[in-house]
Design goal:
Blueprint lengths: L4 H7 L1 H5 L5 H13 L1 H23 L2 H20 L1
The structure holds zinc ion (ZN).
Amino acid sequence: MTDCGCEQARRDLEEYLRDEVCRTQASDIRQHLETCESCRDEALVNRTLTDVLARACAETAPEQLKLMVIARLRAAQASHSA
Ligand SMILES: [Zn+2]
């Protein structure tokens, strides 16, 4: 059994949850999550956060977000040219 350890599991957790790790790495992490309760909790929290954020982004009025970004950009440009 090759347990990748908490350190590596947590480092790769985000990419693992986004399905961005290779298959070998993913199975290492999955195996670790099965045996390590604290990393499993961490994974659950991360996954929930990712879901909530994705939903919030989909539901937020894009117009308001766009105006906010434009305002930030203008402020940044103003401070650079000053
Ligand atoms: Zn762990």
